[in-house]
Amino acid sequence: MAKDVIFQLSLRSIRLHFLRSVLAALGIVIGVVAISSMGMMGANMTLSVTEELSSMGNVLVVHADSGGGGGMIFRSGGGGGGVSGGDDDTTISDSEFEQINRAADKYGTVYYLYSGNDRISISSQDGRASIYGLDPDVMPEILPLAEGAYPKSTSSVVIGPTLAERYGLTLGSRLTIGDEDSGEETVRVVGILEERGMSMDLNSDNAIITTEKWYTGVYGGEGEYDQVNVLLDDINDADAAKTAITDQLNRRENVVSVQDSSRMLESITSTLGTLTSFVMAIAGISLIVAAVSIFNVMMMSVTERVREIGILRSIGTQKGEIRRMFIYESVILGLVGAGIGAIVSLGMGYLIVMAMVGTTEYFFFPQSLVYIPLAMGVGIFTCVISGVYPAWRASNLDPIEALRAE
Fold first, then answer.
1. Cβ neighbours of residue 154 under 8 Å, at least 6 residues apart?
2. pTM of structure
């Protein structure tokens, strides 16, 4: 019963100073909205990027170890065109590919590719494009088609959607690869690939994909692969597959280097997480301002109610009950501010995510919404901390001195 009276006294104080209390709670509202909105934006950005990159996260890329730290090696002809053959230091031999295949075959699809770039001509337009030579049997497994079919002859190719759009190429279009000095080859477009985006293994969006027979027939280098990729069935096998390959080929010296694209995904998501925490910390400054405001309100409340405190103490009210009266007041301000802030966060967060991330597909995911109760908890905690000292000061007032106060 006594507890109810104390609580009612706290409510009465808030009602008597309603405008002041609303302004104090408004600081908590702003802080909760800022923290939860920034957190949701970061979570949605991370989920969106992870989804975008996960399709390439299950790939191991194997290069010949040339001591340069890996990376895709393009064979490129100097001057006007042509693609020179690779050398032993930068290519993977047929026997090395067989060893890689034996080591990693059980983890997924192992395939090799030839890569380069050359001059291309379409009607009156000239330019350059990446050119890949692949085993025709592998193409359907790794390169989904948007339209058309896969090459069945050496004079047919599939192309990426960006290249098709840039030069206005459609199914049946013909394009010339090479130049007059190095020799020209005309091929026909029989398929256009789906967009894949940037990828470590094969950037096909702006490329021409030919059969390995056509590629080696034009540029040579048969059995000297620029790169071997392992498309994993399970991304959790990345470490095991990488170890199997290096144990198989690098026993005496480093013959190949293996790049794990899932590491890049982890690095990107980690960076986004750090940026999100940083932005949330900046947003949390608004809660510091709110804490100062509530502290000020509570101190004013103690000063204005000194005589009331003296009367309560003189009729037997304990120090702990006086402390609770002011703590209740700060908790009520915190609950009201955090509750309103949570509701506003749903709308404000949705708009921010739509504007900054470009999609609200992940907005209602638990990883996104968890920032609302988190921000509410921080807001309420801030209010309680702000009310501790005023409550302690009120409870330690001398009852006689308090009764003398005007």
1. 210, 211, 213, 214, 217
2. 0.62
